[in-house]
Amino acid sequence: MNAIDVTAIISVAFLGSLGHCIGMCGGFVMAYSSAKIDSSSSSAHQFLSHVIYNIGRISAYVLLGTLFGALGLLFTFSAQISGYFYFVAGIIMVLMGLSMMGKIKFLTSLESNIAFHPQIKKIFSHLIHTKTLTSFYGLGLLNGFLPCGLVYFFLATAATSGSIVQGAMTMALFGLATMPAMLGLGYVVGFLKGNGFRELMIKLASLIIIAYGIYMSYIGFAAVVQ
Predict the structure, then answer these.
(1) 3-state class of 149 per DSSP?
(2) 24, 131 Cβ separation under 8 angstroms
(3) Burial 122-160 (b: 16+ CB within 10 A, else e)
(4) Of 127, 130, 132, nearest to 142 (Cα)?
(5) Which among 95, 97, 129, 213 is most buried, taking Cβ atoms within 10 Å?
(6) 74: burial class by Cβ within 10 Å (0-12, 13-18, 19+)?
(7) Is residue 44 over pLDDT 80?
(8) What predicted TM-score, i.e. pTM, was given to this entire model?
(9) What gap in Å lies between CA 175 and CA 166, rounded to an integer?
């Protein structure tokens, strides 16, 4: 994993968390904060609950990163096959970036259909009505496995690494970089959900995704034509 990859992962994840993640997961966080966390409980207990939730979320990302990194190994038998994979992954990233900016509709219906699946809602209902600390981990785990365009971007990056370790590291970095916004959501929700600020963060994250997608497509094209 080179410096460009690490910088892109952290930049897109952090900016995306202030824009896309607040919109996609904000309701999730607000729901469990209202239903599961007693305002009379200590600040330490409230903070621990949020941290455990985020650990669950990151655990899901690391598991997915490990899986996609392993799948990426299938495309490393030759430089040409790797090149095709990089090229296609780069194009998908460009489409995701354009979708986040609202220029096109890409994967939107898939996100909605899976997120509102009856079985998913049943699991969520059970966890939201349980107040044990492990239930916060379960909610985070569930949230991490739900479809999300930004997560797809990083999973594509994990797959192109062609490494189980780098795939897991990619998703771990993504999860950690989104933690500040997710942890602070309850304290600064008004600022983060402000239309102007959120739109700016989404555009910045989208532009980085598009630029990185073009970069990956170029690497893939160069490998194919060699």
Answers:
(1) helix
(2) no
(3) eebeebbeeeeeebbbbbbbbbbbbebbbbbbbbbbbbb
(4) 127
(5) 97
(6) exposed
(7) yes
(8) 0.72
(9) 14
- Whole-angstrom Cα distance, residue 53 to residue 26? 13
Is 73:163 a contact under the CB 8 Å cutoff?
Answer: yes
Distance CA 157, CA 71 (A): 12
Query: What would the two tokens of residue 189 be?
Result: 């929700």
pLDDT at 32: 75
Residue 67: what pLDDT? Answer: 94
Closest to 86 (Cα-Cα) out of 4, 24, 20, 162: 162
117's enclosing H/E stretch is: none
| Contacts (Cβ under 8 Å, ≥6 apart) of 49 | 36, 37, 133, 136
Q: What is the pLDDT of residue 171?
A: 94
